[in-house]
Amino acid sequence: MSKVHLAQSCRDITRHLELALKHGCGLELQAFSNPDVLNGSWRTLLDDYKALLQDFPGSLSCHGAFFDMSSASFDPAVVALTRERYLLNLDIAAELGASQIVFHTNFLPMIRTEHYRTEWLKNQRTFLLELEPEAAQRGLKVALENMWDPDPHLLRELFKDLPAPHLGVCLDVSHAYLYRFNRQQPLEAWIETLRAFIIHVHVNNTRGVIDEHLALNAPGGAINYTELLPLLATLERDPILVIEIDDPDAAEQSLQFVQRVLGADFCHPAPAPA
């Protein structure tokens, strides 16, 4: 990993932008995942961001729509709506000059039938192979993020023979910790199973019950990032490491923790694409 991004889910990115400039990081812009934005003022917000970021020296990534999205749905009408949303997100990300955009798997593990898993994989593969050239045309890579995935093998099975260089995996470490069916399965197994496909990583901590987005070294945090970060740093596809924490103080604390674990010069400015 050579790039670190700070993520802020709210529209106001001022504090995270200040931190990114201070520490030489990039930004992951997440406001365009919000249906209220996509159904309303997305053009105004996009223009505001472009003005705010016109001299920003760091790289950018984006998070796309995920509320009620289902790219592998059995219902063609749902797939069509998801595609419409995703294409809008691709256009927004391209106009911002982002290099990567994240979408969720939104796999439903409570449906415990082999038929559902098999058909989900088939439908998701079809959707991604149609989306990939759209992303490539816009100079983007798409990272598919584990949400409620019960194990890492679902994404591995999806990507292992997928002939799509502009697609990859976003490993969300807290999601993996919280929603894995096998509570004894170490997070290291997720990293190793998906190693060849990971192009994006979301990190934050949790006390083990809900997705809290706490500082990486928060008291009571269930995830040991002192052990995980060095392993993440060995990933071959040079993923973007995203500190996905809204609270700016906790985000800066986490960034400083990453630098202590991986080295003071780990985070450095990465020029935005021309």
Can you describe this structure?
The structure is a single chain. The chain is an alpha/beta fold and 274 residues long. It has one domain (3-262): Alpha-Beta Barrel (TIM Barrel). It has helices spanning 14-23, 35-38, 42-52, 76-96, 114-137, 153-159, 173-179, 187-194, 225-232, 248-262, and strands at residues 3-8, 26-29, 60-63, 100-104, 141-145, 167-172, 198-203, 240-244. It has an eight-stranded parallel barrel with strand order 1-2-3-4-5-6-7-8, surrounded by six helices. Strand 4 (100-104), helix 5 (114-137) and strand 5 form a beta-alpha-beta unit. The longest helix is centred in the middle third of the chain and has 24 residues, at 114-137. The chain starts with a strand and ends in a 12-residue tail after the last helix.
